[in-house]
Specification:
The protein is flat. The two termini are about 40 Å apart. The longest helix has about 55 residues. The chain folds into two domains: about 45 residues; about 60 residues. By secondary structure, the chain is mainly α. The protein is built from four helices and no strands. It comes from Chunga burmeisteri.
């Protein structure tokens, strides 16, 4: 069983490594293509007159800036959509908090007093004992929540 587990983990790692290598190979191929395009453009530029070289350089920069601008507009649209979504979620959560606060305000005072007495009793019990903690299984989530807070 242990060897099978190790073998499965090794196969998972091997598969991830192969996927990573494949992704890197694709990235290298894309960079090679881009480099070839840039070399071709550079060779074409060298054959042009100085005025045409300047104009070609300006056209290249305009194209680069246009593409960058489009990427930034796309990013801005995504961020605006995310902002709208988060604002909607915030409104929902604020409404839930208001509803919860309203329901807490309607809880009778005697119930709140009973809860305070229970907390005091629990605190006293904890002071009387040292060592292991005894609790019911169904109280475990409450106990964990109280320990965390």
């Amino acid at each position: 069983p242990f060897l099978r587990l190790l073998e499965a983990q090794l196969q998972d790692q091997r598969r991830e490594h192969e996927e990573e290598v494949e992704a890197l190979k694709n990235e290298v191929d894309a960079m090679k293509e881009e480099l070839e395009k840039q070399q071709q453009a550079f060779l074409q530029t060298l054959q042009l007159s100085p005025e045409a070289q300047v104009e070609f350089g300006l056209q290249q920069e305009i194209t680069r800036l246009t593409n960058e601008n489009l990427d930034l507009k796309e990013l801005l649209e995504k961020l605006e959509k995310n902002e709208k979504k988060l604002k909607k979620q915030l409104k929902i959560y604020m409404k839930k908090v208001q509803d919860f606060e309203a329901s807490q305000a309607m809880v009778p005072a005697e119930r709140r007093q009973h809860e305070r007495n229970m907390q005091v009793a629990v605190q006293r019990k904890e002071k009387d004992f040292q060592g292991m903690l005894e609790y019911y299984k169904e109280d475990e989530p409450l106990l964990i929540r109280n320990l965390i807070t």
